[in-house]
Design a protein that fits this description.
Layout lengths: L1 H22 L10 E7 L6 E2 L2 H11 L1 E7 L4 H8 L5 E4 L4 H8 L11 H5 L1 H6 L1 H10 L7 E2 L14 E6 H6 L8 H14 L24 H10 L9 E3 L6 E3 L6 H14 L12 H9 L5 E4 L4 H4 L10 E3 L8 E3 L9 E4 L6 H12 L1 H9 L6 E3 L5 E3 L1 H8 L56 H10 L4 H8 L3 E3 L11 H22 L4 H18 L1 H22 L1
Parallel strand pairs: 1-3, 1-4, 11-15
Antiparallel strand pairs: 2-3, 4-12, 5-12, 6-9, 6-10, 7-8, 13-14
Helix pairs in contact: 9-11, 10-11, 14-15, 19-20
Length: 560
Amino acid sequence: MKKMLKKITVLTLACVMLMSTVAGCGGKGKDKPITLTIYSQLANFSGEQTGWSAQIYLEKFNVIVNVVPDQDGVFETRMESGNLGDIIVFGSVGGDYQNAVNAGLLYDWEADDLLHEYGPYIEEHCQNALETNRNMNGGTIYGIGHNLATSTEDIDKFIYTWDLRWDLYKELGYPEFHTLDDLVEVLTAMKELAPTDDNGKETYAIGLWPDWDGTMVMYVKSMASAYYGYEGDFQLGLYNQENGEFYGALEEGGPYMTCLKFFNKLNQRGLIDPNSMTNTYEEMKQKLLASGYFMSIFDYSGSMIYNENHVEDNRQMLPCAPLDARPIVSGLSTLGGNRVWAIGANTEYPELCMEIINWFYTPEGTMTYNYGPQGLCWDYDEDGHPYFTEFGEQAYLDRETMMIGDYEGTGTFNDGAFAFNNTTWTLSAENLDSNGDKYDYQTWPSYQIPAKSEIEQDWRDYTGATNKQEYMEGRGIYLVTPISTYQQNKLEGEMKTKWEAVTDVIVTYSWRAIYAKDDAEYDQIVAEMIEQANAYGYQDCLDLSLEQSAIRYACEQELK
């Protein structure tokens, strides 16, 4: 009976679509849209999707999307209700995902030929990822992972690009620097050249922000990933994917503590924004735009914000890594990442949900998610190569650009960004609708453009690279995070209590250590941090981290 009801639903929807077509132009607007809920553990937005993407949902699927983020208690509440949502985006394949599977709250993608009939692109092009999900669920497909690749031979885009104010670096005479200590000296010299920003305020080497702190201070553990190449988004420390070794956050001389001391050295030189502990990401961004900082280890908090706004000033932030740095970069996987797309078992519209997810996995959907509406923002040339329209490039580089054309009145480009905040294909994957091109616009033939400023041309001449990916790969010094079937463990009970107490101590005291006025005060704060963390159960947290790193390494070796 259930299968028959679904078939009737499908026929009903088909009839509605046919009637809409017969009605002619504007006919779809006469049908009442269906409201779907996307519960996303990665979303940072709550409410009805707005902007140009909302118009696309309506035009392509006659759907209004309501986004529910994963705030405190939301998952547990939705589990108790027996309804997680229509479309679900899990942040990992760990505890929450497994609990949802075990509770029967996820839809079987092969029931009633759902995948075959409504997910044809996924079925044809994502078999490895589907089998990965099947294998983790005892033979049933309940979803698909993110960041797929068409080949395992390539690496993903670098986000740890070591952006540095190249105009200042050139003025210094291109001083060679190998280590973090060497970098401190370069940044000190930069401040002597540029002591104030565009608004006459004091400059700093770098500005941090606490919004994304977790088990450790985000920027400190990320510096360790950028310099040593170790995975920082794993357990309570850093994981070395080369050999499976794990370095606890409080290990003396370990990567986290070494990088913590680096930031304190910057602070003692007056090179850390004193408001870093209270900065929001947006506040950091505005200070950067005013030329208030000299460096960022991330492209998204450096060159991607600064450069387009300072072309006419001939000032640019461009990759310039310490010679000893070997930043981390993700390997590409056809198996799918650990962020899972799924469908709620109790949705009234499983076919529609499958159609939407399938569309996001098509080249059109992937390009639209990343770059906006086809035709207005991007398209293919006569040889099948993708290219930006003039408006599309402007909107992508300045996301506050107001939409035009068929999407006029929907707000800015950024207003229409798909709020579920997950991906399907990695940007480094091949776009199968193109002439062998990747999704990454910086690799498109149409985007191999001359330098936009004299200082960018100087960087190209000095490094021999034309873009940041080419520079980072050309160094030949980086660590690749391998594909893995490892599933993150879920903390519960007493262990969860210990973990939260210990990590709170580490984050709180790390910030205090960064701001220590001299070495003596720094040493005292670190000693207190270690003492407090040990009192709350740091050793138990470390033991768990070591146990999990061994499990993860075994999973990685098995795939190799």
